[in-house]
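Worked Example 4.2. Consider the chain below.
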Amino acid sequence: MKVRFAPSPTGALHIGGARTALFNWLLARHADGTLLLRIEDTDRSRSTPENIEQILDALRWLEIDWDEGPVMQTSLTDRHQQALHAILDAGLAYRTTATAEDVQAYKAEHGAHRGYRGTDEGEGAVRLRVRDDGATAVHDAIRGETVFEHVHMDDPVIARADGTVLYNFAVAIDDLDAGITHVVRGEDHLSNTPKQLLVIEAARAAGLHAETPLPVYAHLPLLHGPDGKKLSKRHGAASVQELREAGYLPEAVRNYLALLGWGAGDDATVLSTAELVERFTLERVSRNPARFDETKLRWLNGVYIRSLTPEDLAARLEEFTGRRDLARAARISQEKIHTLAEFWELTGPLLERPVEDPKARERWLGEEGRAALADVREALAAAEPFDEAGVEEALHAVIERRGAKPREVYQPLRVALTGTTISPGIFESVVLLGRVETLRRIDDALGGAHRGAASGERAEPASHRSP
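Applying the procedure from the previous section yields the following C-alpha cells:
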C-alpha cells in the first residue's frame, strides 16, 4: 500500500487537512505501507516558503511523519510536459482555441448535455478527448460506486495555451508515477476524480505505466461544526496552529481527529496512537458528515493531561509558557485544567501577582470576609508544619471556631491570594506560595493592619522566584 498527503500550501494547515493527513498516516502504518508527502505548490503567488513551513511544522507537531518527500509538485514540471506530449502524440488530446463561452454556446445549440468536441486550431489550450458513449465509474471505498456519464461531460482542459498543465492533470500523473495505490482525501475532491481517472487512462493508453492499476479512491466525509454547518472560523480553532496555541496536546488532537468520521467499532473514545494504528481501516469510515466540537476536544484533552506524569506535564507547561521550575505548580493544577493554556489562567496569579477582580473582592472581602481572613492569618502564622496537611488542619480549626461554612473561610483567602475566586486547591495554593508570601498577600487584602514579620518558614515568596 502506498498513500499520499498532498496539501496546497496556501495558508495554515486546517483541521480538515490535518484529519486527511492523519487518516493517510494511520492507513499506511496499519498496513506497513508508505506515506508520500507531496506539496502541491503550483499556485506560485500563495505557495510561499512560509506557508510550506507552516504545513511541515503542523505535521511535525502532530507527530505525523512521512516516508517519502516532501516532493514539490513544481519540481515535476518536466515530467508533466513529457506526459502531456505523449498523450497529444497518441491522439488522446487536442489543442483548441475554443473558450468556455464557445463550449456553452455549442451546448445550447446542440443539446444541453452534449460535450463540445471542438476542432484542432492553432496553439490553444489542450483538452482531453472524452468518448461520447459510456461512463467513468469511481469506485469509492467509503461512498460506493458513483458513475459519471460521458454524455454529461465536456472535454476537460488539461493544459493552458502556454503549456502549463492544470491541477487535475498534474495530480493524476503524479499519482500514477508515484505508484499510489490509495487516494484518501476530502469529499470536496469527488468531482475531480473522474477527470483524474480519464487522465490516468489516457496516460496508460499512451504507454505511460500501462500495467499500473488504477488507485483505490476514498473520499472522507465533510467536517461540520456543532451546529451542523460547514466547519469554519466561527466554530473556534480552525487550524492546527490555533489548536497548538490553545494548549492542546498532539496525542489528544490525533485521538479526536481520528474519531471524526471513523469509529473503532466498540464506542471507544480514548484511544492511544498505537491502538488507532492497530484498528484503523477504511471500512469503518462513515460517509456522513462528521462534527468537530471543540468542547469535546477540550474534555478529551483534559483526560490526556490527567494521564501525564507530573514531570511530563511540568515539562510541557514549561515549554508552552517559556517559564522554568513549574513542577510544584503543575502538580497542584493537573486535576483542574483541560488545556495547557488554562494553567496560567488558573495558577498564574499565584506565580506572579493577584489579578484585579472587583466583583470577587466585593463579594468575599466585606466585613465578614475580612474578619474570617484575619483569623486565617493568625492560624497560618502559627501553623506547623507548613505543608498541605498542616495548612488544612489550621484552616479547619478556623472553620470550627467560627462555626462557618468552608467557603466562608476558603473564598476570602483565595481572593486575598489570587484576586479571584478560582485557583488550584486552597491548601496546595497556600503551600506553593509559602508562609511569608501568603501572609503578605493576606496583609495586603486586609489593608496592611497585620503587616509585620511572619513567624516560621522564611521561604522566598513565589512571586519573587525566577520564572
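The chain is about 45% helix and 10% strand. The longest strand covers residues 34-39. Compare this with Example 4.1 before moving on.
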